[in-house]
Amino acid sequence: MITEPMRKLACLVLLPLIGGCASIPSIHEQPGDSQFGEANRQTMMAQVVDPDPVYDAPMTGGGDQAQKAIERYRTDAVKQPDSIRTTDAGAESGPK
Question: Sign of torsion, CA 62 64 74 72?
């Protein structure tokens, strides 16, 4: 026969287990505030220049090309990239 203190103890022990079965709605089920996560979306958009770029020629590449690049890196024979000028150092700016 279970005594009253034992019954209370059993309820206290089992209560957290029952709470684990409860369903808490996630942000995907019930979004609530429409601005939730806006800072993350803005940061991601700032990092993406063009989400749908258009190229003149198809992009090529593969494992063999990557293997050759790794081998050049290991043997210290890396190809130097073409220089691209983004500013003209000799240009004058501002009023004369």
Answer: negative
Whole-model pTM above 0.85? Answer: no
DSSP secondary structure letter of residue 27 = T
Cα separation, 75 vs 77, whole angstroms: 5
Give the long-range contacts of residues 52-58, CB within 8 A, separation 24 or more: none
How far lies 8's CA from each of 11, 20, 29, in Å? 5, 19, 36
Angle at Cα 19 formed by Cα 17 and Cα 25, nearest 5°?
140
How many Cα neighbours within 13 Å face the side chain of 52?
Answer: 0
What value does the mean pLDDT take over residues 54-76? 88
Transcribe 23-51 into DSSP letters: ----TTTS--STTTTHHHHHHHHHH-S-S
Q: Which residues contact 86 (CB under 8 A, 6 or more apart)?
A: none
